[in-house]
Structures are given as C-alpha cells and as structure tokens.
C-alpha cells in the first residue's frame, strides 16, 4: 500500500501549492528547466535544499547522496550517479553556481569517524565514505572527543568535495574562465544557521548578518571548524 503520509501530502499539494504555481509548472513542462544553481546535498531527510533556500520548482538542480560528497573525476567502474548529475548540470544546463551543502550531525560523517561496522555485506556506506580519508588524515585522530571533532570533519569533507570538483575538466575550465563558481555551505539542523565558506580565507561564516535573535546564539557544537 502506498504510504498514507505521501497521499495526504499530495492532496495538500493539489489543493494549495499546485493551483498557486500552476502557470510555473506549465512553463517548466513546455520549456524545460534552466536553473542557475546546482546543490550537492546530503540525503539526510532533515536537510532539504529546497526547504532551506525556500526554492520554487525549477530553481535548483539538486543531487543528494550520503554526506554530500563529490567523488574525484575518473572514468573507471560502471556507475557514477553524482558525476552524471554534475556532467548534466554543467554541460547541458549550464549552471552558474555549484554549492556543496554539508550539515551538522551527519550520519555518514559519524560512521566514518566511528569506523562503524558494515550494515550489510556490500558495505556501501563504508566504501562511499572512504572518499574522505584524505580529509580525515589531515585532521588527525579525534582522541575520543567526537563532539569537537565531528563538526571539523564535516567542514573538512566540504573542502574535500570542492577540491574534487576541480578534478573534473569541464568544471575546472569554466571556473578558470569565471563562468562557474563553487561554494561551500554548512547547515545547522538544530538552529537553522547557514554558514557559507569564504573563498579567500576558507572560513565558514553566517550567510546573513541579521540573524533573528532566536538563532543568533548558535552553539559551538554546530559550527566550530
């Protein structure tokens, strides 16, 4: 049986949002999509780019995977979901911005730090998360202090993905020509604070200066790099 929650949500969509945005959907269906921004986010159900950025249909081209990772460019193997989405966004859609959106309390990052036992014989998560090995090596051992270490590793993983993006020839060429811009961002699930990476210093700072008081006092656990 199809999940009741989805059926109820779809009915709400038909009753409210679809009528309000009907013209937009019709235009998208006829003319296709032309988003200027690609977001590479985590598949964590708590971190929806469309919700965080209050985006309408057609505004963001989103690919999500465990821990919002970008693999390095390579043509071996057989399946390249994230690389395929990246290729389409850059070569076909001609996006102008790519945002690697990480987040606090990421389960994939935690699994890597804990060296968690495989969930299945395939160990798909473990193999996937091994990509951030170089970032973890740079940080060094966590000595059991995961509360401080995990946010640092989450931010380091974003940096690592940004470096991997530049290994794709189509990305590197456009970045060097100033036609494509890469960004790192980090979302605090508990407090709603969005940090954006400064391309000059590599520091992550609040995306907006006028944060509401209720979220301005964010915890060090969420943001410390």
UniProtKB/TrEMBL annotation:
Q: What InterPro entries does the annotation carry?
A: Beta_CA_cladeB, Carbonic_anhydrase, Carbonic_anhydrase_CS, Carbonic_anhydrase_sf
Which reactions appear under catalytic activity for this entry?
hydrogencarbonate + H(+) = CO2 + H2O
Q: Does the keyword Aminoacyl-tRNA synthetase apply?
A: no
Q: Which SMART domains match?
A: Pro_CA (SM00947)
Query: Which SUPFAM superfamilies does this entry report, sorted A to Z?
Result: beta-carbonic anhydrase, cab (SSF53056)
**What cofactors are annotated for this protein?**
Zn(2+)
Alphabetically list the UniProt keywords: Lyase, Metal-binding, Zinc
Question: What EC number(s) has UniProt assigned to this enzyme?
Answer: 4.2.1.1
Q: What does this protein do?
A: Reversible hydration of carbon dioxide.
The similarity annotation says: Belongs to the beta-class carbonic anhydrase family.
Q: What is this protein called?
A: Carbonic anhydrase
| Originating organism | Microvirga terrestris
